[in-house]
Amino acid sequence: xxxxxxxxxxxxxxxxxxxxxxxxxxxxxxxxxxxxxxxxxxxxxxxxxxxxxxxxxxxxxxxxxxxxxxxxxxxxxxxxxxxxxxxxxxxxxxxxxxxxxxxxxxxxxxxxxxxxxxxxxxxxxxxxxxxxxxxxxxxxxxxxxxxxxxxxxxxxxxxxxxxxxxxxxxxxxxxxxxxxxxxxxxxxxxxxxxxxxxxxxxxxxxxxxxxxxxxxxxxxxxxxxxxxxxxxxxxxxxxxxxxxxxxxxxxxxxxxxxxxxxxxxxxxxxxxxxxxxxxxxxxxxxxxxxxxxxxxxxxxxxxxxxxxxxxxxx
Amino acid sequence: xxxxxxxxxxxxxxxxxxxxxxxxxxxxxxxxxxxxxxxxxxxxxxxxxxxxxxxxxxxxxxxxxxxxxxxxxxxxxxxxxxxxxxxxxxxxxxxxxxxxxxxxxxxxxxxxxxxxxxxxxxxxxxxxxxxxxxxxxxxxxxxxxxxxxxxxxxxxxxxxxxxxxxxxxxxxxxxxxxxxxxxxxxxxxxxxxxxxxxxxxxxxxxxxxxxxxxxxxxxxxxxxxxxxxxxxxxxxxxxxxxxxxxxxxxxxxxxxxxxxxxxxxxxxxxxxxxxxxxxxxxxxxxxxxxxxxxxxxxxxxxxxxxxxxxxxxx
Lengths: 314, 314
Hints:
The structure is a homodimer.
Chain A: E1 2-8, E2 12-19, E3 24-31, H1 38-55, E4 63-70, E5 73-74, E6 79-81, E7 91-92, H2 94-101, E8 106-111, H3 112-123, E9 132-137, E10 141-147, E11 150-151, H4 188-203, H5 214-226, H6 230-254, E12 258-262, H7 270-283, E13 293-296, H8 301-311
Parallel strand pairs in A: 1-4, 4-8, 9-12, 12-13
Antiparallel strand pairs in A: 1-2, 2-3, 5-6, 6-7, 9-10, 10-11
Helix pairs in contact in A: 1-2, 3-8, 4-5, 4-6, 5-6, 6-7
């Protein structure tokens, strides 16, 4: 049997056909932002799923169903609710909408970061870890939290929104409608905003980075930092310091053994991890000192989210 | 059978003899700060326990044991570790020390706020609530977190230290050795510090409040606010605003249905709760809006912590 794993991101939606055991047989992707609304998105996703299954030359009956990881995804209700970084706003009952296309399949949905945490538990470094947090650093910042071997959904299915912890009251405007959320500082988008602020402060004029796709630009800043660009280095330091404090604070809630970092920004490696570890250690409460590890996820980037989403049907 | 429930606070240690079913037969208290060190504290506690049992005219064999709630108490290890507000510092293996006095009794220990959460679940308003947080507002700020019907201990037994979430980097010095922890603002002590700052700002001279015991002084500020004292009212507004934001942030981690407030400061009633609710609503992420209640604990003050600690042996 096969499962289709779907990872809905602010920029790109990725999908893969996953064999039992966890091999990704084939995969594809499409631009999330190009979809006019939720109906268009569902139609495109259904089309892409059909094409993926047809391309693999397997019968539709050999597919168990679809597991979907989405920003602000609600596991209990099968909905995406008020996603700050998607083009379709409000409440989208995506599971019901996909059921209309695939009535005989099982379809489940969860928060994209919860899917990453499921993936880390089933296929990654967390196989033997019962208390951990996965932080996804992409367009936004997401989190999936395991407590005593179980993924925390909370009473309404929306636990683990660390990206929307307010770290700077009255700070940067966030896609959620509030100000100063962690993800406005610690994410690919946040990194770009910080760099632009530093450039403007130094030159008095706006940078042209806003013309570039965000993910590309975060990579550009990482490359500049590798070349020794002082503003790019300061950008990573500021970003890591914010994130390190926020992660030290998160430890004081659920007391995890490991925090895994996942997603595009982790490609920066030590550029991010060295100042992050320093800020984390500096802000960790004494009772947790020396007990909590920060690690980069053990899963391969794009496949991890797909595998995690597929694991929803296990 | 009976259980001795013990609530160790920064100012006072309370103990009670609890009947099966949850009635507190008799209780007593002693001054925590008067004890020179951990050995003296354990000796005094053992003496008080013996006197309590003797006074009730029951046989020592009719007592199951002792349940202890303590700041920075570690359920897994039976230790109190680096308590910011107690006179004995470092690591105190209190369960082992009490075992030396009562070898045949079962002795368990947990965080004082976890004990309050256990009490709320077993005897209070949370009987039918699976996801909730109890916030204790005393000398410090503690928290006990339930996720899907289970108290969260985390991998090391120290989950739920919301009082030590850093809300103001570089802010007020905290007993834990760091700066800007939530409890330096939102607690009886924090309330007094805020009031003193406001008084100093207005008059240019230090108030004499530091001469008073902290708990008494927090009550004094509440009384002043009731009389319409503008600085006292502003103190409650500032305190409640800090706490409201921090609680809204905590919702984004475990997504509780209710947050129960417990302890001395809640005696201030609407003086605290009205601005708290306002700040909480203003900072809550849209996906949680209208789903999370703030309530004052359903348990009677001093007995609640004793009952919660006793519930450790159930």
